[in-house]
């Protein structure tokens, strides 16, 4: 797939996807059910599908008083990881962003950090004790 092409497995989330997205949220280190409900209500989520079933999602949140977007949640079901799905979700979000894209990651999540860095994200700051089990890295792509 050439740069700029939209991955056909990625599409906007739909109301019918809500239950499956809520199930996938359980795979996150620190899920935010309220934020997810808001994202579902305003139609912000993007999903990755396999055989018509949602197997991953990304929840972007627009900055209130600044350009750009923050990736609040990104998860792919374990059986569908390492297939380029998270990359495709992030690439679609970056392509649509009207400014920088930020996200937060655990410093020990080597696979996620390698993915983010390969897409041009750089560490912008370290947030001590952001997670129950330690710090978080805030990553940014201009």
Task: Give a concise summary.
This protein is an alpha+beta fold. It has helices spanning 18-25, 33-42, 85-96, 110-118, and strands at 10-12, 46-50, 53-62, 69-76, 101-105, 122-131, 134-141.
Characterise this structure:
The protein is α+β, with helices and mostly antiparallel strands and 142 residues long. It has 4 helices and 7 strands; from the N terminus they run βααβββαβαββ. It has a 7-stranded mixed β-sheet with strand order 1-2-3-4-5-7-6, with helices on both faces. A hairpin with a 6-residue loop joins strand 3 (53-62) and strand 4 (69-76). It is globular and about 40 Å long. The two termini are 23 Å apart. The mean pLDDT is 88.
- How many runs of DSSP E, i.e. beta strands? 7
Helix share of residues?
25-40%
The quaternary organization reads as: single chain
Helical/strand content category: alpha+beta
Instruction: Label the overall shape.
Output: globular
Strand content: 25-35%
Mean model confidence by pLDDT:
88
Number of helices: 4
Order of helices and strands: EHHEEEHEHEE
Uncertain parts: none
> Radius of gyration, Cα only, in angstroms?
14 Å
């Amino acid at each position: 797939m050439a740069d700029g092409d939209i991955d056909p497995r990625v599409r906007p989330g739909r109301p019918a996807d809500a239950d499956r997205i809520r199930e996938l949220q359980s795979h996150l280190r620190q899920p935010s059910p309220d934020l997810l409900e808001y994202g579902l209500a305003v139609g912000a989520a993007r999903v990755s599908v396999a055989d018509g079933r949602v197997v991953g999602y990304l929840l972007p949140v627009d900055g209130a008083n600044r350009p750009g977007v923050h990736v609040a949640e990104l998860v792919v079901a374990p059986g569908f990881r390492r297939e380029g799905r998270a990359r495709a979700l992030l690439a679609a979000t970056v392509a649509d962003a009207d400014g920088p894209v930020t996200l937060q990651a655990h410093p020990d999540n080597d696979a996620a950090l390698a993915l983010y860095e390969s897409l041009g994200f750089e560490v912008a700051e370290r947030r001590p004790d952001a997670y129950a089990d330690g710090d978080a890295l805030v990553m940014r792509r201009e």
